[in-house]
Amino acid sequence: MNIQTKYHGEVDITEDTILSFEKGIPGFPDEKKFTLLPLPDQTVVSVLQSVETTDLAFVIADPYSFYEKYDFALDDTTVELLQIDSAEDVSAFVILSVHDPFEASTANLQAPIIVNVKNNLAKQVIINDEKYKTKHPLFGQPAKG
Asked: What is the number of domains present in the chain?
């Protein structure tokens, strides 16, 4: 299926690349279908693009590339909702606020995107831990572990 995207123009995606957010994303409760799109020459940063709304896209990253000690536990409700059987089923991403220069960018460590890679069910979870912020610097300040 072809979709219009915010950063990539028109792209062709397949059903098996669509992530399902049963309850949407906080602030966007009606947006339930997203896909991950790579950025050129990037393995850490990508785009979480709404399948239905062209202008709705988030720049996301693998948090462990920036914060080796990033650690949190998922509650039982989330594990059940996403049908997670083992830790190997899970990928975590954080939404970035990208600034110029890139070194001034921040990551939302308080609300990671959790994806069950086996069934493409996803959810943005809120971590109630004061060591993680919604605007944590990407560089220069390691997340406490």
From this structure: 1
pLDDT in tens, the chain (145 residues): 999 999 999 999 999 999 999 999 999 999 999 999 998 888 899 999 999 999 999 999 999 999 999 999 999 999 999 999 999 999 999 999 999 988 899 999 999 999 999 999 999 999 999 999 999 998 865 555 4
* N-terminal to C-terminal alpha carbon distance within the chain: 42
- In Å, how far from its chain's centre is CA 21? 11
Domain-located, residue 26? yes
The verdict on residue 82 lying in a domain is yes
Residue 14's identity, in one-letter code, is T
**In this structure, which amino acid lies at residue 83?**
Q
Q: Pairing state of beta strands 90-97 and 113-116?
A: antiparallel
Which amino acid belongs to residue 105?
S
Q: Which helix (H) or strand (E) holds 20?
A: strand 18-21
Assess if residue 55 is contained within a domain: yes
